[in-house]
Amino acid sequence: MFVRIGSVANLGIETIGVDVEINVANKGLPIFEIVGLAGKSVDESKERVRTAILNSGIEFPRKRIITNLAPADVVKEGSCYDLPIAVGILASIMKFKLPEKSLFFGELSLDGTLRHTKGALLSALYAKEKGIENIYVPKSSANEASIVSGINVFGVENLKQLTGFFLGKTQIQKSDYAESNDTFDKPDFDMSEILGQEQAKRAMEIAASGGHNIILIGSPGSGKTMLAKALPGILPSLEEKESLEVTKIYSASGNIPPEGSIIKTCPFRSPHHTISQIGLIGGGSNAGPGEISLAHRGVLFLDEFPEFPRSVMEAMRQPIEDGLLTISRSRAKAVYPCRFMLVASSNPCPCGYLCHPKKSCICSDREIKKYTKRISGPILDRIDLRVDVPIVESDKFLENTKDIKRENSEEIRKRVVDARNIQRERFRNEAIFTNAEMKNSQIKKYCQLGKEAKNLLNQAVESYNLSARSYFKTIKTARTVADLDKSEDIKLNHIAEALQYRPKTHEI
Fold it and tell me: Residue 95's Cα: distance from chain center in Å?
């Protein structure tokens, strides 16, 4: 008996249809084979499917079973084909009819239950695009798939339940979407907890408002890490389109938890400086996403930036500029968006105490020069704001904090949201969301400079020898400062403030 079942293959965040063709024949030696360019994890489905069917109280047929995954020229990876293969075999031996326009997706446990499987959202999006009415997924993945409206999502607990459903003996209710608030934790710090550092807080507000890259330079204990970890608390929630982009990446990488829902909070990723290039950029045999893609529409915090391997830092050049990354491998190719906000921190020297008011630096000039050159000019040129984070004076943290009113994250966040709303209205007919994403043509269209502001910028170009990229990044930063000031034009003070944050090449 021949059965064809619909499934999918997820290639990055792109999805293609896969026909799972199963032929159960009485003639020939008993065998169970999977063909169609199946990877190791797919080939292992044979034992999972066989054992799951037996442990569901159903006798596995001693017949010649050939499973073909078509198209045969596309590599199939992952455990999501367990369910369609098992359903196809059961339909062959139990003679039940499968519903038309249906898609099956999920991993089996050995006892016949279905496990949470990555990529459920991508499968549901594909089903809606192709007019497929029903999708059967593990129950723990059903809420993720239910994000997509217009299709029937059935959350399946085990093979026995699904078999009874097709035989008309049991019922499986359609899954209704339920939003979850526990996908990401709350920020570790509030801005009100950070003592002093008013200029740094202002720079973080500008960076959050326009999506700008920023580097924090300061001695150990000055508060660089606290500032970075407080940043998510002043970022606005993701727009609907942004939210779907982020959720697709997290679905493809398996980072959506069981019963998880759409991600509305900006991601915050903080990899250790020992991370490999593949871990940061993405790749591997399956062309999976790296930290820069997982930080899409959010924050990528690189603490101790000069300690990252030079090759890893340099690999970020193109992704920072393009906001898109194509990973090509011999057997796989994937495209991932990576429009993130880079937040880096660094000590001023190897010992960390250069220009410290009380501690002496023990580094030689040669050591300091070598340390600062770990961050190349091209990387610094892609950073919009450079902020010095000085050591907080002892009287600041010894004073009675109850008597001092500090601005909290929510108060700053309101200004950031207002600035983002201005940008959303400005770019309503563009394919961008923030000032940092503007191309040169958009800068000319949306960034009008007054005569005084233009003269100051031209003087800065001559004095600091700014590159063309630095020139336009300064204008984009000034545009954000003007938005925070609710000014339609970029004025002299906006350019002046943007210039004071501009990093100089080979200086950290």
Answer: 44
